[in-house]
Design brief:
This protein is mainly α. Helices cover 93% and strands 0% of the residues. The longest helix has 80 residues, at 57-136. The chain crosses the membrane at residues 115-135.
Length: 137
């Protein structure tokens, strides 16, 4: 293995490691989003309870606070979804850069195996011919 192949292999390992890290971050985002959605449901329930037509000034203030909390939670969920989309895009780019390298390696391994089979078959044919010549004499 020459120096370039060694560097290439290290680069591919780093890319695969990055893919694994990004996959972990995506799983974390899924958990964050589930928690945010649960909290949003709670906030919406509280806001609907506090939404009374003839409320006092205090109740109206609570309702405004509840509605703002719901809006903030929805923004958080949107931010999580945008981050997830960005991670998927980066993950796709990384995978696209790793897959061709793996395909080339697989093709080379297949070519080596095919060549080894050809050499083995030629040796077997040669040995059969030599054995036939020896048996004939």
């Amino acid at each position: 293995m020459n120096l370039w192949q060694g560097r290439k292999r290290v680069t591919d390992r780093a890319r695969v490691r990055n893919i694994v890290d990004l996959s972990g971050r995506l799983a974390d985002l899924d958990l964050k989003e589930a928690e945010a959605r649960r909290k949003l449901g709670t906030l919406e329930a509280v806001a609907s309870e506090n939404a009374q037509p003839q409320g006092t000034t205090v109740l109206r203030k609570w309702l405004a606070d509840d509605q703002q909390a719901v809006k903030d939670q929805r923004r958080l969920i949107e931010a999580i979804q945008e981050e997830r989309e960005d991670l998927w895009r980066v993950l796709g780019q990384l995978a696209a850069s790793v897959v061709p390298a793996l395909q080339v390696r697989a093709a080379l391994a297949t070519a080596r195996a095919t060549w080894a089979l050809v050499v083995f078959t030629a040796a077997l044919i040669g040995a059969t011919i030599v054995a036939a010549l020896i048996a004939r004499n």
